[in-house]
Amino acid sequence: MRKYFRAFLMYALIGLFAMSCNFTESMTIEPDGSGKITVDFDGSSLMDMMGDEMKENGEEQKMDSIFDFAYLLEERKDSIAQLSQEKQDKLKRLENFKMRIQMDTEAKAMKLSMFSNFKNVNELSDMMSTFEDANSMQDLGGKSMANEDSPMGGSKGTDVSYKFENNKFSRTTEIINPALFEKSKDSLKQMEMFMSESTYTLKYTFPKKIRKVSAENALFSQDGKTFTLEVSFLEMMKDPKILDLEVELED
pLDDT tens, 7-47? Predict the structure, then answer.
């Protein structure tokens, strides 16, 4: 268990710093509408900065583990019950997710993946917010490891919805709390120099060939069923609607 929370603490640090790191949101939709969604985080640049210090402190050289949030939420349900209903609802969104942590201090490599299967894409919520909610889990002492003043430490005041029906898919962002969204943007200013090279990428695979995508910069796979769209992470945080798009599949 101690090993688990040490890794989880490292995950929290990633959320706090997010320096020159890249996120990839991947989704695969099957013919029946079910599928899998994953957010991958490449923290190799952070490990390049922290790897030597971790080795000096006796941290683990290598790690490759998968953690089930449903188990963690059940294990700590008494503590969670003492939180506000809003925080409880956010944590409940994690129960269908698992997280894989791969870390190699010698190679200065780190990768985290949060993933979940779904029965219908319409049931999905904002993956970036879900990623942040994981960072709001509390440690054994009951103190939050997330920094709520960080743009990666809590809700950005936005919500993303997904819809797929009749060969048409959409990803739509709504600003549900303008004041909170503006506060989040203000907190980005002190991190801009560190995040300038960070990216956020969408990689979506559909059961049929794509006829068209509203995003002009989208790239397509050879079989025409997958598109990739990369944007600046900093620009995405300032204007999350740059990832709004519509996809139309062939009949």
Answer: 444 444 454 444 557 889 999 999 988 999 998 988 776 66
Block residue for tokens 């190679």: 107
Using DSSP bridges, classify how beta strands 226-232 and 199-205 pair: parallel, antiparallel or unpaired.
antiparallel
Give the CA-trace dihedral at 165, 170, 171, 172, to 10 degrees: -110
Count how many Cα atoms sit within 13 Å of the Cα of residue 133 in the half-sphere of its side chain.
Answer: 24
**What's the structural domain count of the chain?**
1
**Structural domain span for residue 156:** 2-249
CA distances from 170 to 159, 204, 235 (A): 14, 11, 20
HEC secondary structure over 174-203: EECCHHHHHHHHHHHHHHHHHHCCCEEEEE
Q: How far apart are CA 135 and CA 128, in angstroms?
A: 11
* Residue 27 amino acid letter: M
